[in-house]
Amino acid sequence: MSDAALSRIANLIKLEDDLVKIPTLRQQFTKEKSSIDVKLNTTVQQQIESITSNMYKLNESATSLNEIKHSLNKIGSVYDESTGIPDYESIKKVTALNQFLTQTNNLCRDISGFRDFVNRLKKMTEAEIEIVGRDISYPLDNIFEIHYNLTQIRNFSDFLLVPSFKFSDDLQSIIARLLSPVKPAVRMFDELLKEVIISLTEAVKDGNTQMAFKLIRIIEHENNEDLKVVLKQKLHLSETLNPVTTNYSQFRSSKRNYMKFFYNKLEESLVETFDQCVEHFAEDRLLVYDNLGWLEDELVFVADTLAPIFPARWDLNGFIQDVYYNKLHNFTMDVIKTDPSAEELLRILAYDTHYGKFITSLQAEADTTGKSKKEIKSIVGEELKKVVLDDYLKVIISKMEEWNDNLIRQESEDFVQRDSPPETYTYKQAFDDEAANDQTITLEVESDVFVLPDFKTPLTMLKEQADVAADSGYGSILVGVIQNWSRCYVKRIVNYKLIIEDEFEKYMSVYNNDRFITSTSSRMRFFKKSKPEEPLFDIENMSPDELAAISKPGLIEYLTALGNTYEINTDRLQDKFLVTYKNKVHSSYQGVIQEAFEDTVTPSTELNGQVIRAIIDIITNDLYPALSKVFTKEWYDDKQNPEEPSMVQQVLETIYEYMQDLRGYASYDIYSCTFALLLDAFIASYIRIGYQNILNGKAKKVDPTATKKFKSFSEGVGRDVTLLYGGLESLFTRRDSAYLLNSLRAIEFLGDLATCDDPLNFIPQMWENEILGSFYFCSVEYIRGICLCRKDMDKAQVNILIPVLEDIQRTYHANVTPPPQITGTLNEFYYN
């Protein structure tokens, strides 16, 4: 027993208790032995079968080898028997003589009828050419016979010419005269093949595939014979040929290159077709790129129909694509050498991209059908294309900037001079409102709004340049055009901001009503001026022409037209242009295009904000004469002079007139935003001027304990709120009227704040429960001002109250989220 077996048994039986396992172990070992015996027997049997098979094959090889030896011995015996004949040499000489006489007889016969044979062949070829030239449906009935006979003639000619260099000059001259008709016959046959090659495409289109098949058979035969010639030359077999025993009807001394002939004539035909197209558009060579549909149709036909007829190794599809590519490339280089304009360069690049996509589509079809594929190359060339792209972009950017500068000058002149009213544009708008049941509804309206003259010009320029760039197929060009246009657009916005500042200053230099405001410091802060100024001009005694020379009329109309213009253009840029041009480029460029368009949004929004602010300041300035009476004696007694309108009536008439006109020519967004901010500015001014009149002017402080004279303060503010709401409500939509109502509470709250008892307890409760609910970010200066306007409160009490209000506001903001629409009337309120 082996050591391994003993070791395994020792591991299994270590203790006395393991002796009980011996029967089980015996059975296990028996099973394992049986399994090993089966595997061993199987392996041995496989080895025996393999040895038997190899022995059988060895026996077969020995038998075959013996047969080969027997055959070789038989060949040797036959040779010995044949050469052992006593008259063998005589028979050999007689046989050679017989061959010589037979060859001589054949040559005499063929030479005597050679010229007539060639002439008959030429006539047959001539007739075939004539039929092919006028009938593309002709199936070349005689071409095989013509080709066979011509091959016999050329083989005969080669047979005579090869040894002729050994002959005398006279004999060489005789052979040359004999063979002189051969070259014309060959040229005529070549002319026939040329005509067939030229007619090939049209013939196959007409359904005449026989022409293609017969041409292929002839070229293939000639190509195979050429390969035989090359092979014989490499093996030096042609040097051992015996002219006497050679069959001259099959003799070929050199290649005839009909495969090369086919490609050369096909290329000549394609080149001629392309050159005819170029010649047709000689006066404007760029029109060639617009009229190459025939070429693309031809390539599609070749790829789908003609090329599959030919053997795949001919690569007919790739060859024709290469020929046309070379012509397009050379033609394009010639055009570029003439220094074309930027637009013309882009037309070339556009076709280059189109051609690349077209060839790619053919290649995609080749992927599924197994057709040959060619490398897709630019007709301009990759290096030159990059230079052309850069040059074009530089030129178009330069032109665009020049155009933009001219436009800025024209726009500035139009806005400042305001010689004619703004133009109108029918604008479709959609906005949300509320129905009678408080449900949100969307309204669509179509109204005529003011716009600046030629307001579509910038977007038209963008469309023209971007469309051309997009048609070029080069994303970098489109991105460059859009980025530069965006910079030019922002430059125009910056210019308009400066114009608005200048025109607003001119307006205020004539119509400023700061003199009606009591507090100088308040006037300075409101208009952000360094010092109060009296009107520079005596406007009461100036003629309209004199006033117009300082500040042209129609400023609000032109400001509104400016706001409408940039609102409409921003919508079109985001909703139409952005989507359109993102879809025209690869995803890697889409983010850049989106960023370029978005770069115009913030400046446009800021410009419209400046427009609205200027309109509001102009309207608010006109309200100052009436607002200067707030909380004065005239304000309390609004019926003192029934023939004159009260302060609030003057305010209403001014606001209503401005906003009624504005609603007629402003977009909904401009109108609603202007009105909301006007309410904030007007109400804040109402309260501020009222505080100033009490604290620094001729108005008296409110005495909450008075029983007669000042008891009407709360009634006065209530009266103003009622009149203002009733007079302005019709100018708002149902949804926007909620903003009007809430903003007027800033005036309404003054009644309770100015006349309540125990203000140190009442005002904090009102602040938390009512004021902050209506004005989430209300300034505490609003409370400070009304408290100082009370006769019964001093600064010490106010200074105690304000920190309490600030703590309440911080807690309120921490626990209450801002409402969806915040009323900003009192957000940054100040009064001194």
UniProtKB/TrEMBL annotation:
InterPro entries: EXOC3/Sec6, EXOC3/Sec6_C. The keyword Glycosyltransferase does not apply. Coiled coil: none annotated. Keywords: Exocytosis, Transport. PANTHER family: EXOCYST COMPLEX COMPONENT 3, EXOCYST COMPLEX COMPONENT SEC6-RELATED. Belongs to the SEC6 family. This is Exocyst complex component Sec6p. It comes from [Candida] anglica. The gene is SEC6.
